[in-house]
Amino acid sequence: VKLRTATAADAAGIYEVHVSAGGSIPWDSADECREHIQRMTRQGNPPIVADVGGEVVGAMEIWWGQDVPQLGRSLDVSMIDVRADHQRRGVGSALLRHAMCRSRQEGCDCVSVWADRNAIGFYRKHGFAERLLLRRFRLPVPSVPARRRLDLQPVELARLGAPDPAHLRTWRLVHPRQLWQDLSRQQAEPPVWQGGREPRRAIFARRIGLPGHRQAALGVYRLAYWKPDAQTAGLYLWTPAPEADVLRCCIGHAAFLGVSTLTILAYGRTAEQLAELGGIAEGQEHVLFRPNPLGEGSRQ
Ligand SMILES: CC(C)(COP(=O)(O)OP(=O)(O)OC[C@H]1O[C@@H](n2cnc3c(N)ncnc32)[C@H](O)[C@@H]1OP(=O)(O)O)[C@@H](O)C(=O)NCCC(=O)NCCS
Questions:
Q1: Residue 299: is its pLDDT beyond 60?
Q2: Nearest-5° angle of CA 198, CA 27, CA 256?
Q3: N vs C: which end of the chain shows fewer Cβ within 10 Å?
Q4: Which of 213, 179, 182 is nearest to 200 (CA)?
Q5: What is the share, in percent, of the chain residues with pLDDT greater than 70?
Q6: Atom 11 of ligand 1 has which residue's CA nearest to it?
Q7: Which residue's CA is the nearest one to ligand 1's atom 17?
């Protein structure tokens, strides 16, 4: 198996890998996957593919940074999939070893992954252990918007510098810097349901002015499904202020936008606050990590 960076010509192969691996497919078509590869390449971080005899049989995406304080500087495996007919032949291991090696080269403290339940055994075998408990919440949004006026400014994510990593209070959006397909679909306002074929996903963001705080919070709403009667948005939140206040602001904003349910993946104190605010716990997932041995990274 040969590992190499993906080019636009690999789009159909990568799309096939994701369809056959059976997880959630991040693109609606191979064409959309091609756009994604081109965007990642422009960002200097193209996907990595596993190639056997000229055929793409596995694909992985990584990025590194420090946006989850509990993890330190981490290299995150945000996607790894092996085509069904090539699983259990060492392809995934080859990709993961590449990520571990890259993590040391980039001077990271660890490799992290938000692991699919079925793949936990695979990561354990490679020395990964559970690190963060992510709790998934569904938060019904009251249909009457908060009366208090909210200080909200639209934000263009593609132009946004990385928000302060210490302020991330939910699990990460697969990161703004990674510019997933969603980000190119960012809209100033959420689309209005008109029946027929609406975009399956949309994303929008607001800077949230916080009374008494110099720095604003950033709320990113990702519309996962867009139905006439159930407008659900995933919420990602960066904020320097006590979260409960900001969470209330975000809920008020969601009501204002006509979103009926927020889904949030949170950990630590934010998870506790969401439970206090009426969030309904819907399950738990794990972030696994594998620390780099001291002295192997460039940060010694
Ligand atoms: C998980 C996945 C990436 C692993 O890739 P792979 O090429 O099949 O894995 P490898 O052949 O390198 O496996 C190495 C070892 O990991 C372990 N392993 C692999 N897949 C496993 C699984 N699903 N459950 C438990 N252990 C697993 C096994 O011990 C395996 O060794 P063995 O086959 O000798 O027993 C791949 O199976 C896949 O794409 N699955 C579907 C999509 C997915 O879950 N992706 C991960 C999202 S976080």
A1: no
A2: 45
A3: C
A4: 182
A5: 82
A6: 88
A7: 122
Q: Which residue has the tokens 């940074």?
A: 65
The residue among 224, 215, 211, 204 whose CA lies nearest residue 163 is 215
pLDDT of residue 88: 97
Residue 99 and residue 76: Cα distance in Å, rounded? 8
pTM for the whole structure: 0.86
Task: Return the ligand 1 atom nearest residue 118 CA.
Answer: 23
pLDDT, position 176:
42
Residue ID of nearest Cα to ligand 1 atom 45: 81
Pocket of ligand 1 (CB under 6 A): 21-23, 80-82, 87-93, 113, 115-116, 118-119, 121-122, 125
Say yes or no to pLDDT of 189 above 70.
no
Task: Determine contact, residues 66/74, Cβ cutoff 8 Å.
Answer: yes
